[in-house]
Design brief:
- This protein is mostly beta strands and 104 residues long.
- The protein contains 1 helix and 10 strands; from the N terminus they run αββββββββββ.
- Strand 4 (44-48) and strand 5 form a beta hairpin.
Length: 104
């Protein structure tokens, strides 16, 4: 239940936009002509708000490489194990049910 509460708390942070269906369980959120959020493998979500913060939530624990949707980030909190930030991706061992903040 704690994980569901964490996921639902992200709904207050999403920018206004249009949701576009990509495939079963996968969508992207378009806001001001840019992709502001996206799901991957129907199990992981990345979303950016209008206050220069992004958020990652996943139902799967383990190493994942996540597309940053064109954003450049400085750090992630709480810092996941094995954090590696690249230009367009962030890779780490993410913990299921936890919200990670991305600082731009």
């Amino acid at each position: 239940m704690k994980s569901i509460g964490a996921l639902l708390s992200l709904s207050a942070k999403k920018p206004w936009g249009v949701v576009e269906y990509e495939s079963l369980g996968n969508w992207k959120l378009i806001s001001n002509g840019k992709v502001a959020g996206r799901t991957f493998n129907s199990r992981t979500i990345i979303i950016f708000d209008e206050k220069d913060k992004g958020y990652i939530f996943t139902w799967d624990s383990g190493i994942q490489r996540i597309n940053l949707l064109g954003h450049k980030i400085r750090n992630v909190s709480p810092a996941p194990v094995g954090l590696h930030i690249e230009d367009d991706y962030v890779t780490a061992e993410w913990e299921a049910g936890k919200i990670y903040e991305l600082h731009l």
